[in-house]
Amino acid sequence: MTAEERRARTRGSATEEVWIAFAGRSEMPWLRLFRPGFRHCFAALADAEGWTLVDPLSGRLVVQRLAVPRGFDLPGFWRRAGFRVLGPFAPAPPSPSRLPPLLPATCVTACLALLGRRGRFLLSPYALYRTLSAELRASACRASACIGKNTLTRPSPSG
């Protein structure tokens, strides 16, 4: 299969999901400055054929196809291992950019790139966690009849 055939096949794929995991352990001493539980983040992309792990480590980027079936509950496995996991997210379609990214290459910027998010000034895994958590809550609220704190106290339009 050529690269163009693979791109055409994944372009129309609505089954792609991105899951982001957050880890608290760190082997790099300077990462201990970050909030405990949020010192590193990494991602997995689920497609029709299985799981691909994207783990931006210090000094290298690990992209690995996992030898588990698509039905394997990787996010559940990560949760049982003690990670905080957010998802699923649909990756954004590719879009051209006039400027190169101006942020340093970190685990956070790698996860944002995998999600297709640009223009976000997030520096720590915890900031990414808060942002993505808020997006998940907002999308869940839109999907269901969500009654917010101010819904019942808002003045009526007629009065």
Number of domains: 1
Radius of gyration: 18 Å
Helix tally equals 4
Task: Report the major sheet.
Answer: 5 strands, antiparallel
- pLDDT below 50 for ≥5 consecutive residues: which ranges? 150-156
Query: Could you give the distance between the termini?
Result: 65 Å
Give an overview in words.
- The chain is of the alpha+beta class and 159 residues long.
- The protein has one domain.
- It contains four helices and five strands.
- The longest helix has 19 residues, at 125-143.
Write the layout of secondary structure elements.
Blueprint lengths: L2 H9 L5 E7 L16 E8 L2 E8 L2 E6 L8 H7 L3 E6 L17 H9 L9 H19 L16
Antiparallel strand pairs: 1-2, 1-5, 2-3, 3-4
Question: Which descriptors apply to this entry?
Answer:
159 residues, alpha+beta, five-stranded antiparallel sheet, 4 helices, 5 strands, 28% helix
Give a short summary of the structure.
The chain is of the alpha+beta class and 159 residues long. Helix content is 28%, strand content 22%.
